[in-house]
Amino acid sequence: MTQTDHRLIRVGIVEDQPLFRSMLELTLAGVPGLQVIAAVGTVAAANQAFRPGVVDVALLDIDLPDGNGIALGVTLRRAQPRLGILLLSAHDAMDLLLDLPPDVASGWSYLSKTSSTSTDELVRAVRATAAGHTTLDPALLDRMEPRAGSSVARLTDRQYRVLRLLARGLSNAGIGEELGIAEKSVQNHINTIYAALGIDADPARNPRVTAALRLLEEIGPAA
User: Fold this and answer.
1) DSSP code of 131?
2) What is the pTM for the complete model shown?
3) How far is CA 154 from CA 157, 192, 197, in A?
4) Averaged pLDDT of the chain
5) Which residues, including other chains, have CB under 8 Å from residue 31's CB and lie 6 or more apart?
6) Low-confidence residues of the chain, pLDDT below 50?
7) 154 with 190: CB under 8 angstroms?
8) Where are the beta strands (DSSP E) in the chain?
């Protein structure tokens, strides 16, 4: 998907808690460039509302009364290969992204309901997911560190920070602004990170998604 900020991003919400569903709907409906198409509370209702071509991003609670958001997301993606999936959970289950079937593994993101996720982070995740990227919960990333001996552990401190910001869904310009460096320098760091992690330029794979998932695979709770 090649969604850009100036194009309307149509969002569907699946959340069984009415208050939280309303909060999500009101928050996203007030953001320029986003339109909430439907907000429902069950898998059955989502299958009815999210017909092909209706939404660009589906925000899915993982725990639903008649199923779960992961299985729903897989079903929706197989019918709509360009659909972005943003999982929301009350549990710290970000590593579930590593268990997705390979044919639908790109374009999924994860935010925890229990973290200090802000409106800005939510909107950033929606936009990044619409563009086919993978966004990881920033508060959960803050509690992690690279596993000893991993490829990520061999990155420099600056490279590791760039990788984490990339995994939060920031663009090169956003990463540069966060770190106070030029956008060209950001791209140079990212190219070095790709080389260090063995991420090739396969046109069939989004390297930013691959890098985010590699980060997720090679980190664990801080000691």
Assistant:
1) T
2) 0.87
3) 9, 12, 9
4) 90
5) 123
6) 1-5
7) no
8) 9-14, 34-40, 57-61, 63-64, 67-68, 84-89, 108-112, 144-146, 219-221
